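Ticket #4471: structure export looks truncated?
Reporter: QA, pipeline team
Priority: medium

Steps to reproduce: submit the single chain below to the structure queue and open the exported record.
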Amino acid sequence: MDTKITRNKELSIYEALLPVIVLIVMLAYNVNVYGDEALSGSNQFILLMSGAVAAIVGFRNKVSYKAMMEKVADNLRSTSSAIIILLLVGALAGTWLISGIIPAMIYYGLKILNPTIFLPATVIICSVISIATGSSWTTSATVGIALVGIGKTIGLPPGLVAGAVISGAYFGDKMSPLSDTTNLAPAMAGSDLFTHIRYMALTTIPSILITIIVFAVIGLTYNTSGTADSESILTSIKESFNITGWVFIVPLVVIFLIVRKTEPLIALLIGTLLGAACAIVFQPQILLQITKATELSFQTAYTGVMNAITIDTAIETSNVELNDLFSSGGMKGMMGTIWLIICAMVFGGVMEAIGALARISQSLLKVATSIFGLFASTVASCLALNVTASDQYLAIVVPGKMFAKAYKDKGLAPENLSRTLEDSGTVTSALVPWNTCGAYQSGVLGVAVGDYFMYAIFNYLSPIMTLIFAAFKIKIKMLSEKDKN
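Actual output as written to the record:
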């Protein structure tokens, strides 16, 4: 909210766009060469190389090295909480695996969720949990992981299920008064929270209804080849784990803590520790399997839990599919995602320091000669910021500050801007692999952004919906005479 936008009058639009063009071209070639392995390190280096190009542009325009590094440092500080959350999500996933929480979710999910309604049910479940918690990240890290696992066992592509998870999670994130972005957008635009939520519902509810219908149609037509083998999968799970409903106390406690506005870091840490306790109480045989010990002792329990929290853990079952599913990278497994975020923040920080982000937004604002043009420029600016700054908060803050006066000059109420910021800035962040949100969702769900991109229907339908409303002047609220003065 206190972010200062750096402007550089000497920077041309061509210079501002040069690092972006270099980034896109190099990433396209790199992904073509490395495929799914591009996120293992080469994409990260390309972000640094593109940052170097931006720095050269900055030097040519009299921006000091110190100023660029200070902005990079500011960006890195802003992501420190997200990085710690990622580490705790890795730890939580490890303890929830060895405690039987994730296996129990999959076990009961297979028994309850019919493959035909699985996809729309996934969207609805994730929507409800995300509204209650105010966090798409928490939703993905808890039920999202389990739902992707269930989808795999019934033969659904992970990308398809991840798209349903992310669609529901971001709907809830947008509409929840507990969400940070839902509070940030009206603060930037000059509206208030509940006016913003009510006005946003006009575009968001049609988008989620269309999303649910599309997933329902896919569910009716998709051939779930794994359905017939569900009994053998259930048997394998029960043979390996002590399946009990008591373990669900842990995720319920985590959700309760977040609903009660407990800090996510605290809630995730408590969830991790409770998962570890459940592993000792309910799954001693899993701890023995991990440590290859013959009897459970304090040292054995400690080693098994610490291994699950920090490094790779794999649980062997009689089913090959489950062996792939019941594995976790712990905190170590999140390092690739953290590496990507750090490199993205370097690129975004340099772009911000040289004034490129402000220059791109100003150029978009110049073509906004009509009300629709203003909405379209806002959407384009948010999308550009998600790609270039690699952070959804900057994709809300920068356009929010840049466009607030333009909306007022056009006689538009501030909730038009706040809604557009969320419809285009918040949700599209998960569609960019090097954005903090795209990196997080991909790392947590274990599905590449490219695999779930086309199935994250709600996320790319939202900006389209807001443009449709603007083009046909549907529910476009104007300022009253009092508000104009």
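Status: closed, not a bug. The export was complete when the record was re-opened. Leaving a note from the reviewer for reference: The two ends are 25 Å apart (CA to CA).
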